[in-house]
Design goal:
By secondary structure, the chain is of the alpha/beta class. It has a single domain (4-146, 160-281), classed as Metallo-beta-lactamase, Chain A (4-Layer Sandwich), CATH 3.60.15.10. Helices cover 20% and strands 25% of the residues. It has 7 helices and 17 strands. It has helices at residues 46-49, 58-67, 83-86, 89-96, 104-112, 216-227, 257-265; strands spanning 4-5, 15-18, 24-28, 31-35, 53-54, 75-77, 99-102, 120-122, 128-131, 134-141, 163-164, 173-180, 183-188, 205-209, 231-235, 271-273, 281-282. The chain has an 8-stranded mixed sheet with strand order 1-16-15-14-13-12-10-9, covered by helices on one side. It has a 7-stranded mixed sheet with strand order 8-7-6-4-3-2-17, covered by helices on one side. Strand 9 and strand 10 (134-141) form a beta hairpin. Helix 4 (89-96) crosses helix 5 (104-112). The two termini are 21 Å apart.
């Protein structure tokens, strides 16, 4: 069986660090992007089930950015607009001088956070976007789960918090391919897929969402196998109703890692990483 390893710090031109759910920092020296930043993590399951009001915790966001020495970002990228991927995105972009890029729904989260339209990019499928030394492509995908990713639909107007959990409508789902001179990363935040969408792409590392996987073998064929990756970083397995500074625990019910791990184990030479919080993983050399 392939060993599951905690990520370890390594000197590298390009690294990725995980901050729970599908939140990832990509950093190469002074250049950095964040994908799906989500530091607030509103506590408890019952408030979610009651569809209570939530809002980004700006003090907590500042604390984590300061702790990780994140002062400037070229861009904040969002895979889809559910709260556990997008709640903090506009605030992180505002605090770091970043451009916010994603769907039209993500754009309205940014506007609700006070971003000027000059710092918002509504992505078009397969368009090459340049942010510093990074080239980014948003590739159409599908949300995982039998419901197709409820709440579905669009966020049609600027979303100013506090807002209800279910106001953070999906707005469509993307795979996000980030290319850099020292390596490439596919961020696949939700475990659905659009058949054939990633065929012919290449990524050294796949940041792979592990929640609500239906058919693990088909999922890996359409993501990891399709892009020829040799390293997989497992994400979206943790209980995001718990704070980041508490011990991370698997999300009950919606995450069953055993079938996914078994399917990964059948792939010879594939490195599978269960990441440690905020600890850099080398992307350079992951080929």
């Amino acid at each position: 069986m392939h060993a599951l390893s905690a990520s370890a710090s390594a000197p590298a031109a390009l690294t990725l660090s995980w901050f729970g759910t599908t939140a990832v920092l990509l950093r190469a020296g002074d250049d950095a992007l964040m994908v799906d930043p989500f530091f607030t993590r509103p506590p408890g399951l019952w408030p979610l089930l009651r569809n209570d009001h939530i809002a980004p915790d700006e003090a907590l966001i500042r604390k984590w950015l300061r702790k990780e020495n994140v002062t400037r970002l070229h861009a904040v990228l969002v895979s889809h607009s559910h709260y556990d991927h997008a709640l903090d995105a506009g605030v992180v972009a505002r605090l770091t001088g970043a451009v916010l890029a994603g769907s039209a729904s993500t754009a309205n989260i940014g506007r609700g956070a006070g971003l000027d339209d000059r710092r918002i990019v509504v992505a078009a499928a397969d368009q090459a976007l340049r942010f510093g030394p990074f080239t980014v492509r948003f590739i159409e995908s599908r949300h995982a789960g039998a419901t197709g990713g409820a709440p579905t639909g669009e966020i049609a107007a600027p979303l100013t918090p506090p807002a209800h959990y279910l106001d953070y409508r999906q707005g469509g789902t993307w795979s996000i391919l980030v290319e850099h001179a020292d390596g490439s990363v596919l961020h696949h935040g939700s475990a659905g897929f659009m058949p054939g969408a990633l065929q012919g792409r290449h990524a050294d590392v796949v940041v792979l969402g592990a929640a609500l996987v239906d058919d693990a073998e088909s999922y890996l064929q359409q993501t990891v196998d399709a892009v020829g990756a040799r390293t997989v970083v497992l994400t979206h397995w943790d209980d995001f109703t718990r704070p980041l500074d508490a011990p991370l625990k698997p999300m009950p019910v919606v995450v069953d890692l055993a079938p996914l791990l078994a399917a990964l184990d059948r792939r010879a030479g594939l490195r599978v990483i269960t990441p440690a919080l905020a600890r850099p993983i080398a992307v350079s050399g992951a080929r």
